[in-house]
Amino acid sequence: MKHVDSRGRPIVAVTGIGLVTPLGFGVAANWAALLAGTSGIRRITRFPTDHLRTTIAGTVDLPEEAEGQVLTATPRVARMAAMAAEEALSEAGLGGGAFPGPLMLGMPPVELEWPHRFELARRAAPEPATYKALTLAATGWPELYETAAFQTVGETLAARFGTRGSPVAVTTACATGASAIQLGVEAIQRGETEAALAIGADGTVQPEALIRFSLLSALSTRNDDPTGASRPFEKNRGGFVMSEGAACLVLESLAHARARGARILGVVRGAGEKSDSFHRTRSNPNGSAVIQAMRNAIEDAGLVPGDISYVNAHGTGTPENDKMENLAMRAVFGEDAPPISSNKSMIGHTLSASGAIEAAFSLLAIRDQMLPPTINHVEPDPAITLDVVPNTCRAAKVEHVLSNSFGFGGQNVCLVLSGEPS
Question: Which one of 174, 248, 393, 414 is the catalytic residue?
Fold first, then answer.
């Protein structure tokens, strides 16, 4: 029974998946809602939105919030990541004990949020809120450090799930979740471990992040129609909708998974990355790095473009991204491009979590031989020449999926997901 790929590397299997998105908690709820074309975008109620240009997002209402607790981004990321990991480990049959490998965590950059800043200013009063006064006010406040330290979430999760070695935390903009998976896959391929826990999580729906993306003119302002606001590949698209969530994949060498009798949900057959260093936020409009990332992933998988059954799009709904992704698809696949769809039309852009969430959905598409739709496709854009699976899911033969993740600053990672090899 074959356990290595064409390059002699261990084949990397997925034995557990966990999901948290605005569509719900757990794989079953999310996949059912996605195939039904349900939108998880709603009006923001977590904080005041007076005078903001965008007042909608894909938010996850955690149990703690129903009890009145206010969660900033860092504890929100930790909570959603833990929920996704618990589900994935349970499905893999690895819950309840120490995990036999490292944690690869993709998460957003961490910063002090407005609640912390207001509290610092209060503690510094009646002194003016100078840097010196704020520094003194932060002295003896360990909770502030623990909330704002980048490594805290990874260390907390590693301790909780008993992963081996030091956790690796990474942030590569919107490619972060895919980067976390790639790190786990490559560690297994190098023979450093038999298993890895890969998580992508983001909880950045907070005022300052919303304002920053708004100032970049990146967000949809279709506030009067939340469920119709995210419109990837559609003629009247006007920007992405911020969102949050988490996904976890349990990765194992195929030999290790089969030896313990685990159910194989699919394999991560290839990964490719390419950056362009064109601009701090924009990718090069010629799509060169995006094209190469896609080609690298397909080549790494030992496949040719014609082998790809379906592409899980980056598909943010910004005019520039969707046009560039269309250009890249034609450059890689020519006239015979496979169907492509964007789940961001339903869950919004989950930023650092998106690559992991979309990898999970790609595996489910293979499992059920179903293509999720791109909803809100009212008026086709003549410049988008692809089959975007408009509005309604579709049964199809799905063997190999290319999952695209293109990040700000030209950070691009693509994954090839496939069914269990014979």
Answer: 174
